[in-house]
Amino acid sequence: MTDQNALLIESTASKIYRFLKESLKGGKRRRLDYNLIARTVGCTRSTVRYNLDKKLIPLGLVAVEHGKLYLVK
Predict the structure, then answer these.
(1) Which helix (H) or strand (E) covers residue 31, if one does?
(2) What 3-state class would DSSP assign to 26?
């Protein structure tokens, strides 16, 4: 399978995580606009919120402190 095909079947949660991984590299903690994330990964703002609140944060991949997102190492 080519990388192009892998991107087509990639889940929304993994697309959001990849975006966050790039945006928050180096241990950054930032406020990120869910609309920006949604436009970048090709979904809606509510989908971003759902995937963060119900998948990525409970899995311990991403955390929020004082309204700022950061990657958990």
Answers:
(1) none
(2) coil
Strand 68-71, strand 62-65: pairing = antiparallel
Q: Is 12's pLDDT higher than 90?
A: yes
Mean pLDDT of the chain: 91
8-state DSSP, 57: T
From first CA to last CA, the distance across the chain in angstroms is: 29
What is the torsion angle, in degrees rounded to the nearest 10, for the CA atoms of residue 70, residue 14, residue 54 and residue 68?
A: 20
- Per-residue DSSP letter, 27: T
Cα 25 from chain centre: 12
pLDDT in tens, 43-73: 999 999 999 999 999 999 999 999 999 999 7
Q: Output 58-66 pairs: Cβ under 8 A, ≥24 positions apart.
A: 61/17, 62/17, 62/20, 65/29
